[in-house]
Amino acid sequence: MNIGADGIGMTSLRTRERLIKRLREQGIREQGVLDAMLNIPRHLFVDEALASRAYEDTALPIAHNQTLSQPYIVARMTEAVLGGRARLRRALEIGTGSGYQTVILAAMVEEVYSVERIEPLLKQARRRIQQLGYRNVRLKLDDGSLGWPEYAPYDGIVVTAAADGVPDALVAQLAPGGRLVIPVTRGPAQELLLITVADGRVQTERLEGVNFVPLISRQPE
Asked: Is residue 17 part of a domain?
């Protein structure tokens, strides 16, 4: 069958439902996240040669030594940033990459702002997002560690690359009650952290171990 923008042409609905069943078994509970993962065509975000593997629960390579995250991790990060809320008004993504996490967010967020440092990836992601008809996404070529202060504050921030620490600029751009989900390198390992700010104090919760490409800053040392 042909690859279609509706996402059903590439694989049967049964194949997608198997992925959703696995996500449920791994602890994903937010129905909006599961619906987005079922309906958004992941195969459009990888090279055609890898499209047959798009609904496996595994990370896949994309251009410029970057990766399309494992579906479970995409779902986990999205669920964590929602924090039990069905929708967010405004969210920031650091690391547009293929654009897949971007559109998963766009299905549940009124306004999504996404920053990418690699221009060819950004251009390709923009084409995919437009192809799928999302009009609530803004993209920017820039240093993601700086965030996007022009549109702050954000109800949620998702970082899709591993930082050496939590950037102060991102914490400063959180709205009251907002949530920042970020992988951070600690020694030889990486941890997925949830950052919240309550009563002026930053609170950190470790979610689980992860494996992301590094967050590269253009800021001088």
From this structure: no
